[in-house]
Amino acid sequence: MGPLAGTLGRVAAIAATSTRRTLRRPLNLLWLLLVPLFFGVLVAGLFVRSDDVPVLAVVVEDRGPWVGPLLQGLEVTPMTLRRLDREEAVARLHQGRERVVLWVPPGFSQSVAAGRPRVELWYGPRQEPGAEAARIRAVAAGLVTGTPAGPLPVEAVAPRPSVRPEDYELLRAVFGFYAMFALVTLITHGAALHHERSLGTLPRSLLAGATYGEVVAGHAVALFLIGALQAAAMLGATALLGAPWLAAGVPALALAVAASLVAACGVALAVAGFTQTPRQITAAGILVGTIAAMLGGAFWPLDVVPATLQEVARLSPVYWALDALREAFVFGGPGAPQLPAVAVLLLFGLVAGTAGVAGLRRWAP
Question: How many CA atoms lie within 13 A of 229 on its CB side?
Answer without folding.
Answer: 19
